[in-house]
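Good morning C.,

I know you're traveling, so I'll keep this short. The sequence:
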Amino acid sequence: MEIFCGEGSSYDRAKEVKDFDETKAGVKGLVDSGAVKIPKFFIHPLENLQNSNAICTSTVCFQVPVIDLQGFEGGRRTEILAGILAASETWGFFQVVNHGVPLCIMDGMLQAVRRFHEQPKDVKMEWYSRDYKQPVRYFCNGDLLVSKGAANWRDSIAFDFHDGQLDPQNFPPVCREAVSEYIKHMIKLRKSLSELLSQALGLHSDYLASIGCMETESLVCHYYPACPEPDLTLGATKHSDPSFLTILLQDSIRGLQVLHQSNWVDVPSLPGAFVINIGDFIQLITNDKFRSVEHRVLAGPVPRVSVAAKGLDGNSSLPHFKLQ
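The tokens, ready to paste straight into the viewer:
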């Protein structure tokens, strides 16, 4: 048993975490119970919480690149490829607009995620699981029971699939239709991005697809409940993505930040935009030409929703060598 001592009394972190997890209510359950203080295992060390305000002064104002994909199959393709290349080399993050996914599909997905997480506990808890073999599972912090670090102020529902090979009848009814439609559009968008990234590298358009690294593996839908003490915790700790590529849909609430030139920079919510971030394994196979960068999510006083479509974790790339 792991015992922490502090403030003159013993603190049994393992027991508090276990008791919390057994409620199957997640962070949202704490908020619904009227909690005004966050549990100790959610409190992050001060060094993780510093510089929460994005840098923008009279001498420097960083902005995440925005790439308009309108006409990417026609006369603007060269311009778009140049923009993707520059953003992937310098930021590892960029936003795309005019990507072909209807706004109603994007809004419908965000609303569906919110509906699922804001259901009564008794309805949600039947989906609660830490079994990674479950194709659909609701959970709070995937590594909660094994990590010694501070937990993130976030609940999630994950859908694991291989480019659509998941029966929608296995989805929660409250979000079944929205998730089914969204997955279809993610598969199509990922194909377009795969071709553009390949060409941006100076390769034939089907290169990344041909080595099996651009398949869509999972959809992870995050809900960051309103936090009574947002200055003490994070929605997501600083990390880079251990995958090839993430296509992120976020709502209008501030929270996502990317580390650029040692500064935390806000990734603002733009109407109709997706956030694209390069994963660790694209950096690997491109010999560090494309950058996988650290990012985090702040906790806040109002709920926030995001949806991450993630690619393979890199296992399929192991038989392949880096680009020469």
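Safe travels,
E.
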